[in-house]
Amino acid sequence: MPLSQKLNTAINQQIGREFGASLQYTSIGAYFSEEGLLELADFFNQQADEERAHALRFAKYLLDSGGHLEIPAIGAPKHAFKSVVEAVKLSLSWEEEVTRQINRLVTLAVKAKDPTTQNVLNWFLNEQIEEVATMETLLKVARRAGENVLLVDEFIARQGAKLRGAGAGQAAAE
User: Coil, strand, or helix at residue 174?
Assistant: First the structure.
């Protein structure tokens, strides 16, 4: 069953958001690199790669479903941050917004009576649970660390793989 025009348009918009997230995480990674917080820089660069993989996963689905790919313009990411907390807080806000956007896509797919798209979106819904939880945990740690940002970098060095979980490895592999 071909995608409805509404779903096609909405998925194209989501592809742009995923690429936008990738750019934002790249920018956050650069900020941490400039601050000498190399574990955090690596963590956010990997998050950037994962968001790019999400965009490509959406694009593949769109094309495999007979849709038309039209990536929208992507705004410039924020590049200056006052603190680790500010950068992580932005990341959490971004993930919460992406969750709302994917929920809207699910609503469109239900209205269009498109179970295939609903099934594809279920993977993204589960991924967002992990993404939000990761950023919530990182924000808690950053707030507790206060001015001692090296504690956050050390936390990522010790717990980064656990934070990324199985979903990140799956997204990168696909």
Answer: coil
